[in-house]
Amino acid sequence: MDRTYGLSNGTARNTMREPNAKGEHAIAAALGTRPHLLWRSRYRPSGQRRSPQNWTRVPTLVQRRNERAA
Hints:
Blueprint (H helix, E strand, L loop, with lengths): L10 H5 L5 H11 L3 H4 L22 H9 L1
């Protein structure tokens, strides 16, 4: 999908976890729908993107290990 839509390698995969406007549009186009219908938390009901995005990055494995060790 990344290559088909001219995105960097891994963009579509990362878009599932983290907001990425280009990735969201590519995935929606591939599914024949619009991004605001797939990611309601990232868009207003009108279809306009929310800003700032309301998400937090998932902790990495190293961060989770450090939290458990503390």
